[in-house]
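Per reviewer request, we include the raw input and output of the structure prediction for the construct analysed in the revised manuscript.
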Amino acid sequence: MIVSRRLGLRAIFWSCLALASSALVSSPSAAAGKTFLTMDSFPAGSTAGQFGIAFTQVVQKHLPIEIQVSVGKPATKSAVDAAKGKVDLILTAPSINYFMQKRIAMYKKVKNAPALNAELRVFLNYPLGPYHIVVYESSGIESLDELKGKKVFMGPPAGAATTVATQIVTGATHLSPKKDFEVMRFDWKSAETAFLDRQMDVYIGPTSVPSPMVQQFALVSPIRILGIPEAAFRSEPMKKALALPGRTIETIPAHAYENQVNEGPVKSIGSWVGIGSSRKLNPKLVHDMVKAFWEHLDDVHATAAWMKAITRDSALREMNIPLHLGAYRYYKEAGWDVPSALIPPEAK
């Protein structure tokens, strides 16, 4: 009887906790003068994860705001959840907005994807970095043509990065995923661990130069970063990849990492990302968060060397959805030149 009662009390406790958590996720709440927000981010070792940490640290240091961060969810799912009001802040990508607008790729079966995208707004953008195609030197793999029969991680299932990685491989080779090589299905963090444990041969993902994660690989064993051949950029799959908003051609230098064996620089596709929310998030909150971010940009730059790529000159680049009303108000107050295409309908 005592055991049964304890189990019953435990069930009640967890049910109450779940209800409280659900209430927190569904909308911002305030207690004792502090506002609580939720945020979908990436693992701390990733470039996007580092940005998420820097953003939350600046906001929480200078404003009465506390941000509860969750990791592990694909950004494509986070975008849908933000549009539905299930999470407050998300790491965004112009390519995700494009897929939603066109109802293609992972949103092909989501009938209301364009309507959901219309609910999203952006605060700022920054260059995430080029897609790194990493192998261990001991694998003997020296080009993309040698992926046949290998175990390859191309990004999380149904992720935007996976779509681009697929376009890179198919555009640079005659190989097809699943048919010619095994596609490893992991989230970002699990893939990092799996590559370190040699459970797969190739790791493909967008990240900064230098990337703490890639350097971690190199500290375990010498690495090679595979490049995209010049001719491959003229292939149809590669043209499709570069046609997406937020896609550029970037160069990864030789010896960007300790224990990198490349003798020369390699070319790859670069990716732009940002941070945003639903259009319904309180404009005053967003205004104050964006203001705190830009007024304390030095604190952000001090977090990691690559973050110096986050500048006022590039903040409004590669956007294909409107700014959040709160962000727009800050930029106008601060004297920024905001392109008309980025002005939110709520401000007109």
